[in-house]
Amino acid sequence: AQSVAQPEDQVNVAEGNPLTVKCTYSVSGNPYLFWYVQYPNRGLQFLLKYITGDNLVKGSYGFEAEFNKSQTSFHLKKPSALVSDSALYFCAVRDMKNTDKLIFGTGTRLQVFP
Amino acid sequence: NAGVMQNPRHLVRRRGQEARLRCSPVKGHSHVYWYRQLPEEGLKFMVYLQKENIIDESGMPKERFSAEFPKEGPSILRIQQVVRGDSAAYFCASSLQGSSYNEQFFGPGTRLTVL
Q: Average model confidence (pLDDT) for chain A?
């Protein structure tokens, strides 16, 4: 079965420091991976995706993610965190075998302290 | 351009009542997905529809839940005889095509509270 794991419920980082939100996946075949962000009482906003090509994917708001096939990971990164980055982050994989629905991780709450 | 619209944003129902959630996809998008988010959990797929067709309803509870996406008008997620366990945020997403290359755009969600 295809799945996504986000091992950290919460990540705390000081403003200005680099941040990493971890994601690992389990799929058969080539993975199509996504990161979404959810602000309180809001819907999900698309950040970036990996389909093919360069392992380092750049997305919105200065975020980037690195696809690592050998480690089956797709960690989200940002060189310098902002307080406004505080939100809930979801990693997702496309279920290629079943109508392209997204399979989400359980989410990681990012807290950036001033 | 308007994104995915959902209404109502908040819905309160008593046990046994019906809940109707509406989703208008991004203009030009013909693929709609519904997801449910329970408190402190990730999103779980419920159903995938194209215009007038249900493509995949593998995530829908077998009873009380139904969805449609008519030729004209919004997609509707209908929950009959709601129970407290139905309290959740329901998100609709749309995509231009069902291809894997197209990301899904999410609406703001409908937060259903069952008293």
A: 91
